[in-house]
Write a structure and sequence with these properties.
The chain has helices spanning about 5-10, 15-25, 40-50, 95-110, 125-135, 185-195, 225-240, 265-270, 290-295, 295-300, 305-320; strands at about 55-60, 70-75, 80-85, 115-120, 200-205, 210-215, 245-250, 275-280. With about 325 residues, it is α/β, with parallel strands linked by helices. The chain has one domain (about 5-320): Aminopeptidase, CATH 3.40.630. Helix 7 links the parallel strand 6 and strand 7. Helix 6 (about 185-195) packs parallel to helix 8. It is globular and about 50 Å long. The protein binds zinc ion.
Length: about 325
């Protein structure tokens, strides 16, 4: 019962009703070839609504232009040993991240992970997503990462905002962040959830690259928990089998590379959550298909989505269930 008490506070009949109404109002998806293999939000959230049952839905907050940001909470049998947060859709074009988050959610609703309290946020940046959906409908090819205000949410967090790399003066734009820490409603919503729940582990889903990145992203130095991060990374690699993604500290991807103000450093630095930034897929750019060079959507979302969804799911499932 002790374990149930804080949990009950999350469930809100109002949010469940509001999610159902909201889902029924999303416009039907168009038939567009450019996004073959990936669903518009209408189909994504309709699938979630169908399997939701009496699981917990929570409206974390509203985006810059007033779209709801949804979280879904699932917990399996037995006392809670571990709390895990998985979220996707931070960057507007990275639809594969939402697909993998929803795959995990649907699987977990059907078979809740024992001893785990899992929270899935399939789409943290609904405004960026809506812009890309509009582009695809209209046959436009824009490069989009940010939210309504065009802020890159993954440069909006509070930890390691200040660039210290010696190269920052040579290529200053490369190390830039948002105007101030947690300046956007979407990053505020995620931060409030993380602060309240104090997750043990988290995965932030992105594309592309084929990496399990762990902190720090804004500093070259190693984290104290380096060994535990490597252990969890290996767990995900093993779950993927052959040609698995690689486990790396993000700042050590390249000697010049740093990312300031990321969710990765924030969740670990502020709340001690073992957080991975997972770069799904190794891109959908095909050297001999020039069409894919110019279609930003395909950079992140390979045409045949299935194998990439399966690999992504295998990894996050291992992080959640550790089996
Ligand atoms: Zn990304």
């Amino acid at each position: 019962m002790l374990f149930l008490l804080p949990w009950l506070a999350l469930a809100s009949p109002e949010d469940i009703a509001s999610f159902e109404v909201w889902t029924s109002r999303i416009p039907d998806p168009p038939e567009v070839e450019v996004s073959t293999g990936y669903r518009f939000q209408h189909d994504v959230f309709t699938e979630v609504a169908e399997v939701l049952g009496d699981a917990d839905v929570e409206k974390l907050g509203l985006s810059g232009s007033g779209r709801p940001i949804w979280a879904f909470h699932v917990s399996g049998e037995g006392p809670i040993e571990r709390k895990v947060l998985v979220f996707g859709g931070i960057h507007a074009l990275e639809w594969i991240s939402t697909e993998v988050a929803v795959d995990l959610l649907v699987e977990s609703l059907r078979s809740p992970p024992p001893g785990v309290q899992l929270t899935v946020v399939p789409l943290l940046n609904p405004d960026g997503r809506a812009k890309v959906e509009k582009d695809l409908r209209e046959g436009k090819r824009h490069y989009r990462r940010g939210n309504q205000a065009n802020v890159d949410l993954n440069r909006d967090f509070a930890v390691h905002r200040e660039a210290r790399a010696p190269w920052r003066k040579i290529i200053p734009g490369y190390y830039s962040t948002s105007p101030e820490a947690l300046s956007q409603p979407e990053s505020q919503a995620l931060d409030a959830l993380a602060e309240r729940e104090q997750y043990d582990r988290a995965a932030s889903l992105h594309a592309f690259g084929g990496f399990f990145y762990y902190p720090w992203s804004g500093r070259w130095k190693r984290v104290d928990d380096h060994k535990e991060f490597v252990r969890l990374g290996r767990l995900m690699e093993d779950a993927q089998g052959g040609h698995a993604y690689k486990t790396r500290q993000l700042a050590r991807w390249g000697f010049f590379f740093r990312a300031q103000g990321t969710e990765l450093d924030h969740l670990y630095g502020e709340y001690g959550t073992y957080t991975f930034l997972i770069e799904l897929t190794r891109s959908g750019i095909k050297p001999f298909k020039p069409k894919t060079w110019k279609t930003y959507f395909r950079w992140y979302n390979p045409e045949d989505a299935e194998p990439h969804r399966a690999r992504g799911l295998a990894a996050v499932r291992a992080l959640v269930r550790e089996d």
